[in-house]
Amino acid sequence: MINLLVFTQVAGLTNRLAFNGIIGQIWALPFLVSLYALNTTTTNKWIVWAIVSLLLSYPSNHSVQVGKFFFTYIFPL
User: Fold this and answer.
1) 3 state SS for the chain
2) Which whole-number Å values give the CA distances from 46 to 37, 43, 54, 67, in the listed order?
């Protein structure tokens, strides 16, 4: 929830929507590499749980896209 609010504000202030979308991809890369490199059957389950939880908490660009569409076409100011 905090990521959603922070990255939405950053996209609104900088007006760089594509960069905001790339942040989620950069966020996921180290966690995907670690899951690929680790043997998840022998690794401590709490470590795997932490990696998967952090992977799934990536900053979503959905709120930025919906807000941009809404304030551009539905309710222009």
Assistant:
1) CHHHHHHHHHHHHHCCHHHHHHHHHHHHHHHHHHHHHCCCCCCCHHHHHHHHHHHHCCCCCHHHHHHHHHHHHHCCC
2) 16, 9, 12, 37
Q: CB neighbours (10 Å) of residue 61? A: 21
Closest CA to 31 of 59, 51, 56: 51
Angstrom distance (rounded) from CA 32 to CA 35: 5
Q: What is the pLDDT along the chain (77 residues), one digit of tens a residue?
A: 677 777 777 777 887 778 878 888 898 999 999 999 999 999 999 999 999 999 988 877 777 777 777 766 777 66
